[in-house]
Amino acid sequence: MNIDKWTNRTYPVFEENRSLEEILAETKKIGLTTIISVDKEGRLSGVARLDEILESDASGLLSGVVGEPVFYCRDSDFIEDAALMLIESHDYVLPVVNDDFFVVGAIGVFEILEGLMEFTAMDKPGTRISIVLDDKPGALRDVVDFLAEREVNILSIITSASESEDSRRVVIRTDESDISMIAEILQEQGISFESISEEEGFSV
């Protein structure tokens, strides 16, 4: 999914010609730890951490502290790309720019978690099914077909590595809250499962 949906467009940015004293006063009020710097036209010029600013002469300018923006996202990137960059950079927030390098906002850990919540449908009520399947073409399709035949609506499917190299762990979330019905469908088809649990869902 494109990160444009998850971009925080109200994240404060600071012109590089601002004094560090002014920036410190403002960041303390709103609790920022990552400072995004832009030039006078609004293009990304750098990023600095609050501790770097605290260690600098407060009479100096932001331009003297910010480093070249190595890690940033474009608004056309995918949310998975943003997650990988956050991991690589060890930052909590990354600037988001458009094709002309103008800063359009920021994306951070909280926005990534919101995206993950939507991907996995963990906020929706229903049933969570955990199955280990052979890692071969068609294995997952059979399970999906069996559920579809019984008119069970699938909300999300996630796969991950299992203990065996020849299999994958699959977590399927459906909007069906009847656990016994889901178990019956799988058992009828000879599909063993690790667990089936009812999900109440939640809202943010």
From TrEMBL:
InterPro entries assigned to the protein according to its UniProt record, in alphabetical order:
ACT-like_dom_sf, ACT_dom, CBS_dom, CBS_dom_sf
Q: Which Pfam families match?
A: ACT, CBS
In this protein, which residues make up the domain named ACT?
128-204
Q: Which PROSITE patterns match?
A: ACT (PS51671)
- Quote the protein name from its UniProt record: ACT domain-containing protein
Q: Origin organism of this chain?
A: Mesotoga infera
The organism's taxonomic lineage, starting at the top: Bacteria, Thermotogati, Thermotogota, Thermotogae, Kosmotogales
